[in-house]
DNA sequence: CATGAATGAGTCTTCATTCAT
DNA sequence: CATGAATGAAGACTCATTCAT
């Protein structure tokens, strides 16, 4: 027999909880945010929460998987129209430097970085983290190696290292932005970093 | 009334507690590490702890202030002997790329990054953090501008931005190392980043 | 308004729920088994459950009343063909010593004993329990006194006490069997107990 | 350095908690009695409880071990002065039939029997239970076999079976007493059971 | 009647902090 | 000053029961 509420209804509630959880984890951090915070934020009851997620940890992980997945999807799509490796790379820099650095967006990044630290203390989560990191890492390596094949970029350069440095800059800048907030010239810094990397890649 | 114990004795106990606290916060994180963990690690009693620090938060803050201060001192001393700005900069890269990436060292960095996140949620701590960041930031700006004055580096470049990117790379790489652990070629990555920055700075 | 479904249909569902409840209470105990366990086991919905029983307690009580009733019916029927009191008594011993000590049967006994304990804490249930106990108790007393009248058994013996001891042995052995499980020589023990009682009853 | 409170003080508190726990488990049962019930009964705080026992389960187990141990100690001591096996056995019957069937004593037995059921659902506890049961079981077997050696008792009888039946009667009678309460002629029943067993053992 | 999502009081457990000794 | 037992507020999670659909 069909369930009394539609799947869309349930999915919406689930997403509401995820949104509330993101807001709470961002504001207070994983440990400090409570289930009560989340359900109060979402207007649901505690019991309802546990109908959708089995634990605080589970919603946290779901949140992370989802947001990482979504941001990677966007990245991949954005690149498709570009021809040369250099253009692709530039576009990646553009995307990151044009992110809306609204409060909400910043908070998402805070959750991501916090997770990185939490994961580093937990063997189960580490694998999870590595897998996600690899997706982004490989994505950039692919572009760089394409550029090397097409002789846009120097062949003497280790693509993996440049990719690693790019993501380090990304995470490092976000980390700093968390503290510096409004005064942080994220856009300009990102573009500068882009130039720096391109200059290094070019022969 | 004359104090019953010498100041040195008290200072030693304080330092013991700080060391234990660092070990515990590094291993478990600020929220997860308990006062019990710290006093057990240090061999003292809970009562003793509260004679030296008024709260868990206080020892955490003290720790951070102290450890940042120590690492900056080392940095400043290390470059004194160098002549040119380029040499100084290279030396900074060298220092970071030759850090001992032992478990203990990694854990200290984890504490630092975690603090960055915690601070970002607390207006009182943010100022604190900014002040500390500024010390490192200014240190690098000074070197870069010296290089620009001496025409070692291009004058078209914003020194503050390069400094910011350098510290972003530093924090970003440490963040990634936390997860990748032993397999992470920190040294090579640091040297690559150094080359990248130098190439960008040079005319 | 005419009922929408037949009485048989409703009774069938009720019995299904009772069976499921017995299985769950047996497996997990009254407190630990949940309504969810019961409805999952029966394939019904929680709402359906509450159409047939007003509470967890109610289904529990219903179960107990029913199962005690059933087992007594069997006992009474089994005796009818026997002539002498001694034969009747022996047959009771036989019936119990030949019960199938399958997992399911053991679990039923567990439920019975557990109910005994739960009832002992609740004045309403105690009367209930006493009434049921009395049925079994009187049944045995009747046989023994018949034997005394017919001079099969010694008249110096208090029939009620022997009956009480018989049921104590029965419940005690089942209790021990719950723990000893497969290794428990229930059949032999029951027969030994039977001989012991008969020897005592005989002049 | 010496602890600030004596070991006796701590042991007393521990025993207070055990007493309170026994009272609460007896009154409400393991599942229904709460930590709050126990600490309220003992006049301590919830936190204090967890200084002495790590969980509700732990205090429950401790309680069981202790009370079983104590009652067995008493039993063994009581026997020592007796010469013949028959006298020993009679004395065991006497001890049980002269137990004070006060409310408190009855409640202890309720806890014991309830534990038997709980243990039967948990593989870890079952072994525990078997071990305890064996102590009592072996104790009786020893006496019976001594009587067989000395020709006080028939050699055709399986000592283990008689022992098993004795303990079954004991537990069975206690179970029934829980429900019948004051009206239950425990003493007389126990003596009757004793005669029954002795008659069976004698040649 | 059936469904199963929602409710929220109730439970165990943790832990920063206090304070009598 | 040192000790560590005591405190109790707070938090994650459960589950019998209700009720809108």
From TrEMBL, chains A, B, C, D:
UniProt keyword annotation of Transmembrane present: no
Residue ranges of every copy of the HTH tetR-type domain listed in the record: 11-71
InterPro entries listed in its UniProt record: BetI_C, Homeodomain-like_sf, HTH-type_Tx_Regulator, HTH_TetR, Tet_transcr_reg_TetR-rel_C_sf
Lineage: superkingdom: Bacteria
Pfam families attached to this UniProt entry: TetR_C_6, TetR_N
Keyword Transmembrane helix in annotation: no
Keywords: DNA-binding, Repressor, Transcription, Transcription regulation
Xref: SUPFAM superfamilies: Homeodomain-like (SSF46689), Tetracyclin repressor-like, C-terminal domain (SSF48498)
Location of the DNA-binding region in this protein: 34-53
GO molecular function: DNA binding
PANTHER family, sorted: ACREF/ENVCD OPERON REPRESSOR-RELATED, ACREF_ENVCD OPERON REPRESSOR-RELATED
Protein name: TetR/AcrR family transcriptional regulator
Species, as recorded: Fervidibacillus halotolerans
